Amino acid sequence: MRVCYFIQNHLGPPQVRRLVATLRRSCPGSFILVGHDGFAGHCSAGELRQALGVDVFAFREPAKRGYFSLIEPYFDAVDWLSRHGVDYDWLVYLSAQDYPTRPLGSFEDLLATTEYDGFLRFWDAADPVNPWGRRRQGIVRYFYQYFDAPAWARPALPLLRAANGLQPLVHCHLTYGPRIGVRRRRQPFDEAVRCFAGKQWTVLRRACTEYLAERLRGEDRLIQWFRRTVCPDEAVVQTLLVNSGRFRLANDDLRYMDMSGSKDGRPRTLTAQDLPLLTSGPYYFARKFDVGVDGEVLDLLDARIG
Fold it and tell me: Which of 133, 157, 183 is the last residue of a domain?
């Protein structure tokens, strides 16, 4: 069995270099691929490749939060692996601000013996009882089609946003925008095809990743719909895989993150004080870390990982 770790990065070399070094030390037989957002301005893909000593490809466009461009590098990674003939059994999707919380030998032992084809978080996006804690969050994100608000209209958007709860046809979204969504009469979702949401970061068998890439290349109706939704990175993979009925999926992404109090979709930055939480649960990775805020927590995790 061979595991591929795909790291999605928009930072400079220091933090991603540390993650790559830990992965190589813990799993020398694995394959590591980095996708780099050079538009963020920290360095180029070539400079990062030289600093890391692993394969790096450049994003085709800036990865913008709330847009399809944030999940596009994952599909590009699957295509890259196929084009370069890389043999792998599992694809682990990480950000450069992730880090292992326990020895990765036990993680790869789990993948070698599990009956599941994928580990990812998912729930019915239309369910008013959901992990977001907001009844209409899934409806607002995935049952409207959005376009970027033109510059001339933006001064009026706060007023339009105030009308969100008064009518169901138009929704103004400012957190990931500014964007204006229209509730279409014809939806791709029904009793046969439900919309599922979850978390962006996944652990999937190759059969799952190749199925996703096939659907993306086909540019089918669901893919086209998700391209004009809010935060498709947290729904397109879940919706495609769960509705396919082909795969055994564990509703668990095997990682720790703390979203409490978040109002912009970003998890809380973890510190050394969080170590008991990171290491006491059934987690193999955690996010997010920032060496500029607290590098000690990574030192403590390194001592645990060995």
Answer: 183
Only one residue has tokens 């390194």, namely: 302
What does the CA dihedral 176, 181, 186, 188 come to, rounded to 10 degrees?
Answer: 0
Q: pLDDT per residue over 78-96, tens digit each?
A: 999 999 999 999 999 999 9
**pLDDT tens, position by position, 266-305:** 899 999 999 999 888 899 999 999 999 999 999 999 998 8
Residue among 197, 226, 201 nearest 124 (CA): 197
Query: Is 103 contained in some domain?
Result: yes
Name the residue among 94, 70, 101 with its Cα closest to residue 3: 94
Q: Residue 137 falls within a domain, yes or no?
A: no
Q: What does the pLDDT average to over 122-147?
A: 94
For residue 272, give its domain range. 3-124+193-305
pTM (2 d.p.): 0.95
93 and 31 belong to one structural domain: yes
Residues 79, 148 within the same domain: no
- Rounded distance, CA 249 to CA 117, Å? 6
Q: How many domains does the chain have?
A: 2
Please confirm whether the linkage preceding 288 is cis (ω < 30° from 0): yes
pLDDT at 219 exceeding the cut of 80: no
Would you say residue 207 lies in a domain?
Answer: yes
Q: Within this chain, do residues 175 and 198 fall inside the same structural domain, yes or no?
A: no
